[in-house]
Write a structure and sequence with these properties.
Length: 150
């Protein structure tokens, strides 16, 4: 069995959701030798988006929209206190953080969905996730990668 197939079997045993393998060919020398870089979802294919919002209700509404549109596999939100500089003053106020677990290629769609629900300037950061557990990798793959088919 090839190392790639062994990795797939390890990530998603028989009976679990399938894993999509993304392979990219790239030229590594002038004599035309090619290498295949195989990445099984479970590498750096998942991202977390850290989004600041004004209220818990905004987080709940946006979260629901993202899940319904299959732009996120899971979301979390919680209250925080934010301190920042504004026009020479230091301001403290309550905010809500929305954490979105998704795929990197869905970033722009998530941002567009957030913008549909709020009109103020907020913070949206993408955090790459270099490793995740195999069960979560299979779940995110099943829920988000074939989003047009469900």
């Amino acid at each position: 069995m090839s190392p790639l197939l062994a990795a797939i079997d390890a990530l998603c045993p028989v009976g679990s959701p399938s894993v999509v393998v993304r392979s990219n060919l790239r030229r590594v020398s002038r004599v035309g030798i090619l290498t295949i870089e195989d990445e099984v979802l479970g590498g750096a294919s998942m991202v977390i988006l850290y989004i600041t919002l004004n209220t818990e209700q905004e987080a709940r509404t946006i979260s629901r929209a993202l899940l319904e549109k299959r732009l996120a596999v899971c979301t979390n939100w919680f209250p925080i206190t934010c301190a920042y500089r504004w026009k020479g003053d230091i301001v403290e106020e309550a905010e809500t953080v929305l954490i979105v677990k998704t795929l990197p290629e869905l970033y722009e769609s998530v941002v567009a969905e957030v913008r549909r629900h709020i009109s103020y300037t907020n913070f949206i950061a993408q955090i790459d996730v270099p490793k995740i557990n195999s069960e979560f990798a299979c779940w995110i793959e099943e829920e988000l990668c074939d989003k047009g088919e469900k």
